[in-house]
Specification:
One of its GO terms (molecular function) is DNA binding. InterPro entries: Lambda_DNA-bd_dom_sf, POU_dom. This is POU domain, class 2, transcription factor 1. Pfam families: Pou (PF00157). This protein has about 120 residues and is mainly alpha-helical. It contains six helices and two strands. Strands 1-2 form a two-stranded antiparallel sheet. Strand 1 and strand 2 form a beta hairpin. It starts with a strand and ends in an 18-residue tail after the last helix.
């Protein structure tokens, strides 16, 4: 039925739409986040480093907590709509030496990834 000029789907219509369109925006977003996590791990970066570089380079205001929530696939759709372009831009910049220099300034892009801290046991 129509409400205020907008078609409102019934539950069965929603299920049919979901089944016929299994690949959603959120699937695409989480593929981007998965790639972000892979690149972050490859370069030995912390979630804090990613958030700081995005804030510094693109004028955003995100925290490492937001990066963590996105990596756990718990980010609301509204927030993912805002962050996906930033994450894609960060990944594009990280794909080239020039982009990495832009992101990290004086960081040597040819340096090996940082060694992970040793896990402590009690």
């Amino acid at each position: 039925f129509m409400k205020d000029g907008i078609k409102v789907l019934s539950t069965s219509e929603c299920q049919e739409t979901t089944i016929s369109q299994p690949y959603s925006y959120l699937d695409d977003f989480y593929n981007v986040v998965s790639e972000l996590r892979r690149v972050r791990a490859h370069y030995g970066l912390r979630q804090f480093d990613v958030a700081t570089s995005i804030n510094r380079c693109y004028g955003a205001n995100i925290t490492m907590t937001i990066i963590s929530i996105a990596e756990r696939a718990q980010l609301p759709l509204e927030d993912s709509l805002k962050l996906k372009p930033l994450f894609e831009r960060w990944l594009k910049d990280m794909s080239t030496a020039e982009g990495r220099k832009l992101i990290f300034g004086s960081v040597d892009t040819d340096a090996r990834p940082r060694a992970r801290a040793q896990q402590r046991t009690l």
